[in-house]
């Protein structure tokens, strides 16, 4: 029971809530204070046919414009032993016999959603990957190709286009066994097909070392001050003509920053956290070393500290 003001009793009294009628009734005089009220709280009744199924969900998924029927098709449930068993089972059999043109797309979208969740990607990237795959599939030229590599490549391109790039190794880790080489080939194939469709080259978005910095720093467990210094250093490194991949530059900057702090990280740990080989980090270090005094922020390390760094 709750309290409410009763106009007849001229005071606050306990009220009774009649959920069936939607009435709020004064417990002392019986006056209906509110009628036909709407219960806005969650409803957890289950409408499942099977008594063992306690899933309260009784609505479908959101509309999907990439599917033929918008994702709003009807599915006949399994019979539950009632009088409608024969009708339900017959409809179910006919439904299973009918060909669903979107069956392959639905399965592909589920795979992309699983990969996106494992990488912690936002919904906009997942939707972009779905759109890319749908455009490639509509051209009917992807038969016989590695499906896992094709889906992984769609996700890779979507990350690039949404300015949230991921490394090929990161994509490969959730690609259901597809190799880097297979994903690379699939990416080139998709870019070529989309280019033929539009009559112009596909915009992939530029990759910068700063795009990977915060995630790499988090993987290796750097403190906030070191992360800030690494971000500033990697931005300054772009002022120099360092002809190396952005991912390798990001890993090498992390190596430099951590070796200027008290919490030094082994080269092997940095290699594992960034996916860049130890030998590659050493080679990029040779290219960055001549500019190290201009790259590392002055507030993070003094000139004497930089001299203590080992020369390549």
TrEMBL record:
User: What processes does the entry annotate via GO biological process terms?
Assistant: transcription preinitiation complex assembly
GO molecular function terms here?
A: TBP-class protein binding; zinc ion binding
GO terms under cellular component? nucleus; transcription preinitiation complex
Keyword set includes Protein transport: no
**PROSITE patterns referenced in this protein's UniProt entry, alphabetically:** TFIIB (PS00782), ZF_TFIIB (PS51134)
Record-annotated TFIIB-type domain positions: 2-34
Entry's localization field:
Nucleus
Keyword check for Disulfide bond, yes or no.
Answer: no
Gene3D superfamilies linked to this entry:
1.10.472.170, Cyclin-like
**InterPro entries (alphabetical):** Cyclin-like_dom, Cyclin-like_sf, TFIIB, TFIIB_CS, TFIIB_cyclin, Znf_TFIIB
- Report keywords, A-Z: Metal-binding, Nucleus, Repeat, Transcription, Transcription regulation, Zinc, Zinc-finger
Q: Which PANTHER family match?
A: TRANSCRIPTION INITIATION FACTOR IIB-2 (PTHR11618:SF78), TRANSCRIPTION INITIATION FACTOR IIB-RELATED (PTHR11618)
Family from the record: Belongs to the TFIIB family.
Q: What is this protein called?
A: TFIIB-type domain-containing protein
Q: Which organism is it from?
A: Trapa incisa
């Amino acid at each position: 029971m709750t309290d409410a003001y009763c106009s007849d009793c001229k005071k606050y009294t306990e009220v009774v809530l009649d959920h069936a009628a939607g009435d709020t009734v004064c417990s002392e005089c019986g006056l209906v204070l509110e009628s036909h009220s709407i219960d806005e709280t969650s409803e957890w009744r289950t409408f499942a046919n099977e008594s063992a199924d306690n899933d309260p969900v009784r609505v479908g998924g959101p509309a999907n414009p990439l599917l033929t029927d918008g994702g709003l098709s009807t599915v006949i449930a399994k019979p539950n032993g009632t009088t409608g068993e024969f009708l339900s089972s017959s409809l179910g059999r006919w439904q299973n016999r009918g060909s669903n043109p979107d069956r392959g797309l639905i399965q592909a979208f589920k795979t992309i959603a699983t990969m996106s969740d494992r990488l912690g990607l936002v919904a906009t990237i997942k939707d972009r990957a779905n759109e890319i795959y749908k455009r490639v599939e509509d051209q009917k030229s992807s038969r016989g190709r590695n499906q896992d590599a094709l889906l992984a490549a769609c996700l890779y391109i979507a990350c690039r286009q949404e300015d949230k790039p991921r490394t090929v190794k990161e994509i490969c880790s959730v690609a259901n066994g597809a190799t880097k080489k297979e994903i690379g080939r699939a990416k080139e194939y998709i870019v070529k097909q989309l280019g033929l469709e539009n009559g112009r080259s596909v915009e992939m978005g530029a990759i910068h070392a700063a795009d990977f910095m915060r995630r790499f720093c988090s993987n290796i467990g750097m403190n906030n001050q070191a992360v800030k210094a690494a971000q500033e250093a990697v931005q300054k490194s772009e002022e120099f003509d360092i002809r190396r991949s952005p991912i390798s530059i990001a890993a090498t900057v992390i190596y430099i920053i951590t070796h200027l702090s008290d919490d030094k990280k082994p080269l092997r740990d940095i290699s594992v956290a960034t996916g860049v080989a130890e030998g590659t980090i050493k080679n990029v270090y040779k290219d960055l070393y001549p500019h190290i005094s201009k790259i590392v922020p002055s507030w993070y390390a003094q000139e004497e500290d930089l001299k203590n760094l080992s020369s390549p």
